[in-house]
Amino acid sequence: MHSKPLTKYGSFERADVEHAGYEALRASVMAMKSKRIKNLAGYYNGTLDRLVSEESERVLAEM
C-alpha cells in the first residue's frame, strides 16, 4: 500500500522501493523487540518515509 504511489509515476524504481520497505520492516521489528512501540504501523511509515527521503537525496546528489 505504501509503495504503489512511489512507483506509480516512475519516480522510483520498484526494486529500490521494495528494498526500502524491507529495511523499514526490519528496523521496525528490531525496534519493537528492543523498545516499547505503541503504533507499529506508524513507526514503519515513519521509517519508510525517512529511508525513501534519504534515497531521493542520494539520487539528486548524483545528478
Order of helical and strand elements: HHH
Distance between the termini: 29 Å
Total count of helical runs of at least 4 residues: 3
Please count the beta strands (DSSP E, at least 2 residues each): 0
Described by the principal axes of the CA atoms, the overall outline is elongated
Rounded mean pLDDT is: 83
Task: Please describe the biggest sheet, giving its number of strands, its sense, and whether it closes into a barrel.
Answer: none
The poorly predicted ranges are none
Helix content range: over 70%
Count of all domains: 1
Note the beta-strand portion: under 5%
Q: Rg, please?
A: 13 Å
Query: How does the helix and strand content classify structurally?
Result: mainly alpha
Task: Report on this structure.
It is elongated and about 40 Å long. Helix 2 crosses helix 3. The model has no long low-confidence stretch (mean pLDDT 83). Helices cover 78% and strands 0% of the residues. It has one domain (13-62). The protein has helices spanning 4-8, 14-34, 40-62.
Essential attributes:
63 residues, mainly alpha, elongated
Please give a quick description of this structure.
The chain is mainly α and 63 residues long. The chain is built from three helices and no strands. Helices cover 78% and strands 0% of the residues.
List the helices and strands and how they pair.
Blueprint: H1 4-8, H2 14-34, H3 40-62
